[in-house]
Amino acid sequence: MQPHRSQPGQRVRVGLVGFGYWGPNYARVINDLPTAELTAVCDRSADRLDLARRRYRAIATCTRADDLLARDDVDGVVIATPASTHAALVRQALEHGKHVLVEKPMALDADTAAAVCALADSVQRTLMVGYTFLYNAGVRTMKAHMGAAQFGQPYYLHATRTNLGPIRDDVNAIWDLAPHDIAIFNYLLDEQPQWASAIGTRVLRTNRDDIAFATLGYSNGVVGNIHVSWADPNKVREVVAVGSRRRVVFNDLNDAERVRVFERGVSVGEAIADSYGEFKLLVRDGDIISPKVEPSEPLKNQCGDFVDAVIAGRPPMVPARFGIAVVRTLAAIEASIAARGAAVEV
Predict the structure, then answer these.
(1) How does pLDDT run across 174-196, given as a tens digit for each residue?
(2) 271 vs 28, which has greater pLDDT?
(3) How far is CA 81 from CA 71, 76, 90, 312, in A?
(4) What is the spatial distance between Cα 39 and Cα 16, in angstroms, rounded to a whole number?
(5) CA dihedral 139, 141, 143, 149 (to 10 degrees)
(6) How far apart are CA 124 and CA 98, in angstroms?
(7) Spatial CA neighbour of 209 closest among 194, 198, 193, 225
(8) What is the dihedral of CA 9, 77, 185, 146, to 10 degrees?
(9) Do the Cβ atoms of 161 and 213 come closer than 8 Å?
(10) What is the band of 275 on the pLDDT scale with cuts at 50, 70, 90?
(11) Residue 115: partners with Cβ closer than 8 Å, 6 or more residues away
(12) Would you call 232 exposed, middle or buried from its count of C-beta atoms within 10 A (0-12, 13-18, 19+)?
């Protein structure tokens, strides 16, 4: 991945809204970028703001987003708050003339997501959604090994994203975890799903689904299956793509072999004349390889792309409108769960 690099001396002054679970990671990365400057942090918790001031003594702090957005020393805003607050904060930031990087999902319905994107276009400000895994060198290596000539016909994809929590207070496990894998599937296939079928359950006895199994239907009969869980003691971050010539596996928790390529596959040959028209299966056997994945921090890649996009006046590598399809798919998954697994058009 070779992002555009900004000119020496240019810096984007960034304000951070949310210093809870994920916000400190954004603060660290932004503080380390040579083209960015962390100028202000906003959080409702006085204790979290005390922590931010101890780590970054030069920053301003506040408890209200309005106060941060009114500052003249803030060019762009990173929003790392609960998902249910994203859309309103993004709109507010854009109306204040700020560039915005917001954690996924940008909204909880597709119409709102589209409206937010339209607002960003109208005020000519950069809007980016934090699909961090699309800036993961392992996922990009996976896509590089899924070219039509090497991978063959795509058959299906499978993703597993499980752990013990963290349990969200405002959204279920689908809206919390599945955006990553929907985004990865859409990126790998260069398209969005046509329908979704899903089931979910609430084993933790909360009022939100904490486990879900979702199947997405793409063109040409390709399907993608996603399993997400807040209640599994085995942490898994794995994506598998199976084609007629190859099987490609991305395991984000395996530092030694982040990506494995199985040069094995099966396809259907011509019908055999003397066997009542049955088709012959053509089995291809080959090596298992572990391609080199250049070490890099996905969040730093993502934030660097955001800052460079602001400086260069260009769209980020993953434009905000990419996220509309993800939100639309999440809504279809939730509707299917309510209908006990019935397929819902995306």
Answers:
(1) 999 999 999 999 999 999 999 99
(2) 28
(3) 19, 16, 11, 27
(4) 8
(5) -160
(6) 10
(7) 198
(8) 0
(9) no
(10) low
(11) none
(12) middle
What pLDDT is attached to residue 6?
43
Instruction: Give bridge partners of residue 266 from the DSSP assignment.
Output: 283
| Residue 128 pLDDT > 90 | yes
For tokens 């053509």, the residue is 282
Query: Which pLDDT score, from 0 to 100, does residue 266 have?
Result: 78
Question: Quick check: 154 and 222 in contact, CB under 8 A?
Answer: yes
As a residue count, the chain comes to: 346
pLDDT, residue 148, reads 86
Contact in structure between 128 and 320 (CB atoms under 8 Å): yes
Lowest mean pLDDT among 42-56, 168-182, 260-274: 260-274
Q: What is the mean pLDDT of the chain?
A: 93
DSSP three-state, residue 324: helix
**Radius of gyration of the chain from Cα atoms?**
22
DSSP 56: -
Question: Whole-angstrom Cα distance, residue 91 to residue 115?
Answer: 9
Helices and strands per DSSP (H, E), number in the chain: 10, 17
Alpha carbons 85 and 87: distance in angstroms, whole number: 6
Condensed to tens digits (0 to 9), the pLDDT of residues 301-341 reads 999 999 999 999 999 999 999 999 999 999 999 999 999 99
Cβ atoms within 10 Å of 186's Cβ, excluding its own? 21
Sheet strand arrangement including 195-201:
288-289, 259-262, 247-251, 231-243, 154-164, 223-229, 211-217, 195-201, 344-345
Q: Return the closest-CA partner of residue 286 out of 151, 143, 148.
A: 151
Percent of the chain with pLDDT over 70: 94
pLDDT of 265 reads: 83
Residue type, 46: A
Q: In degrees rounded to 5, what are phi and psi of residue 50?
A: -60, -45
3-state secondary structure 257-290: CCEEEECCEEEEEEECCCCCCCEEEEEECCCEEC
